[in-house]
Predict the structure.
Amino acid sequence: MSFTLAPAYDDNPRLADLVGRLREYLAGELADYEAALGLTPETPLTRAMIEPVWKRCRELGFYGVHLPSEYGGLDLSYTELAALKEEVGASGRILYHCVLGDLGGPLRAGAIFTTATEDQRERYLLPVVRGERACCFSLTETNAGSDVRAMHTTATPDGDGWRITGHKVFSSAGPIADFSVLVARMAGEEESYSAFLVDLDSPGCTVADGEVPMSGQHIESDIILDDCYVGPRQLLGRVGDGLRIGLGRVTTNRLLHCPTVLGHARRALELTIEFARTRQVFGGPLAALQSIQHKIADMATSYYAARAMTYDALSELDSGSKPSTEAFMCKLFVAENAFRIADGAVQIHGKAGLVRGAEVEWLFRRLRMFRVLTGSSEIQKNGIAKALLLPSGTQR
């Protein structure tokens, strides 16, 4: 693929059309909507603000576009979906995560369609696809992040159902969600975990304000359960399937996080190029300085390499392979290099890049987080090393 910051996708007319319409919506209608509401990345979001975006994006064919046609989507390949995720990440929009359904929408719920029963699809998942309901995913606890088996949230049998007690943190989309896909340890069993669809307005369930991450986004909640009852119709899959459901698509999810981050890095690079062209120093544009030219060349090369790796691994996924090691490598390389690009953007912007409210300053904070989120860089290195060093069949 030839290098460009705005790919045309001429070899894929369907994707070219989708990207073109998506760019038009992001730069036009959605930009105007955000401006009318006075949104910033740190504005606490409400359902009243974002539900119209879900429904409008559903009308335009973006919300749930990756799903099979029976659910109103276009059954996109992973590579096609990645291209759209990169575009929303590169758009500079506050509500970028609402357009395709990353924040509590179809991209969050779609992973469990094949596990859910018909009743669960009708009650929980299809309303999400229609933009009527939202979901969050609750796995992480204060002392159970990378080591999810250290979780203390427990499900105790009660008749045909269970009583759940525990405290989940960093439930993304929790502030606007109707239900949670929640994983709990089965009481009295050392290594058995199950997944449940927990209605967040159930007795014994409290949605509390979560920690605000360094990006300033108010999209996290704590989910606190105190003897919260869930019935048999709310068990997702079978008893003991919790970690398989919670972590089973980890390779796919790891790869599909990368395009959004690449989009953010692309945005930082575009802003930097524009700033260098227009900023006047010593009687000429900043871009005339060789030191700036070299910095931008390094940033662009890092972006190209990270993007090429990611799309190569996604094409393997589309072919039916499971590029587990490559997914570790992509997450590591994208996270580290996207942050270097953001750091370079701030450096070139100088004082203008240090001001709160400047877009490159926000991108710097957001991209720093990705070196930890969805598995830290060190966790990715562990996975790569195990794949290379451990005899086949002995990896956990």
